[in-house]
Automatic annotation (TrEMBL), chain B:
GO terms for molecular function: ER retention sequence binding. Its main location: endoplasmic reticulum. Belongs to the ERD2 family. It comes from Dendrobium catenatum. InterPro entries: ER_ret_rcpt (IPR000133). The keyword Zinc does not apply. It comes from the Eukaryota. GO terms for cellular component: endoplasmic reticulum membrane. This is ER lumen protein-retaining receptor. The chain crosses the membrane at residues 55-77, 98-115, 121-140, 152-170, 182-202. PROSITE patterns: ER_LUMEN_RECEPTOR_1, ER_LUMEN_RECEPTOR_2.
Length: 10, 215
C-alpha cells in the first residue's frame, strides 16, 4: 500500500 | 511532525484530560453531552483501525491508545459510574446524534479517496468529527450555568483542529505539495462550527463574566 503521508496524523 | 501539529495534539490531549479530571474530581458530568462523547468514541475507533497494522511512531501509537482509552473511559463514567451517571441530564442532551452518523457514513461511501474498508472508515471519521461537537454546543445553549472547566474543555477541543489547519498549510508548503480536500474541508467546517462559541468564550474571558451562549 503506498503510504499516505497524512495518515501519520491523529 | 511540526509545531502546529504537536500543539494541536497537546491541546486535544489537554481537553480530554481536563474533562476526565473534572468528572473524577467533581464526580459530576453536569453540562457534558454524552452524545458528543459517544460520537468521539466512534470517531477514534473508525480512524485508528490501523493502530495494529501500521506503526508510524511510538508517539503516534501511544496517542491513539490514549485517545481511545480516555474517550471510552469518559463514556463509561457517564453511563455506568454509580455517582456520575446520576448527574447526567438525559432530557437536556436531546440532539439525535445518529442523525449525524448515518449521513456521514453515506457521504464517506460517496466521497472518498480510495474505495477500501480502511479509507472509507477513515473518511467517515473525519466527516463525523467535524459535526461531533454539535450535541455539546446545543447542550451548552440550554445550560444556564456553564462551569469554567466545561467551557475550557470545549474551547481546547475546538482549538486543536484549528491548529491542525495551520499544520496542513505548513505541510503543503514544506512537503510534497499534495492537496487533501477531505481532511482540509472537514477540519475547516469543524473549526467554523466553533466560531460562535469562540466569540462568546473570549468575550466572557475578556469581560471577566460568566460564559453564556444565546439560546
Amino acid at each position: 500500500i503506498q503510504s499516505d503521508p497524512i495518515k501519520d496524523e491523529l | 511532525m511540526n509545531a502546529f501539529r504537536l500543539a494541536g495534539d497537546m491541546t486535544h490531549l489537554l481537553s480530554i484530560i481536563l474533562l476526565l479530571l473534572k468528572i473524577r474530581a467533581t464526580k459530576s458530568c453536569a453540562g457534558i453531552s454524552l452524545k458528543t462523547q459517544e460520537l468521539y468514541v466512534i470517531v477514534f475507533m473508525s480512524r485508528y483501525l490501523d493502530l495494529f497494522r501500521t506503526y508510524y511512531s511510538l508517539y503516534n501509537s501511544l496517542m491513539k491508545i490514549i485517545f481511545l482509552g480516555t474517550s471510552m473511559c469518559i463514556v463509561w463514567y457517564m453511563r455506568s459510574h454509580k455517582v456520575v451517571r446520576q448527574t447526567y441530564n438525559n432530557d437536556e442532551d436531546t440532539f439525535r446524534h445518529f442523525f449525524l452518523v448515518l449521513p456521514c457514513f453515506v457521504l464517506a461511501l460517496l466521497v472518498h479517496r480510495n474505495f477500501t474498508f480502511i479509507e472509507i472508515l477513515w473518511t467517515f471519521s473525519l466527516y463525523l468529527e467535524s459535526v461531533a461537537i454539535l450535541p455539546q454546543l446545543v447542550l451548552l445553549q440550554k445550560s444556564s450555568n456553564i462551569d469554567n472547566l466545561t467551557g475550557t474543555y470545549v474551547f481546547l477541543l475546538g482549538a486543536y483542529r484549528g491548529l491542525y489547519l495551520f499544520n496542513w498549510v505548513y505541510r503543503f508548503f514544506t512537503e510534497n505539495h499534495r492537496v487533501r480536500w477531505i481532511p482540509w474541508l472537514s477540519g475547516l467546517i469543524q473549526t467554523a462550527i466553533y466560531t460562535d462559541f469562540f466569540y462568546y468564550y473570549i468575550r466572557s474571558w475578556k469581560n471577566r463574566e460568566k460564559l453564556k451562549l444565546p439560546a
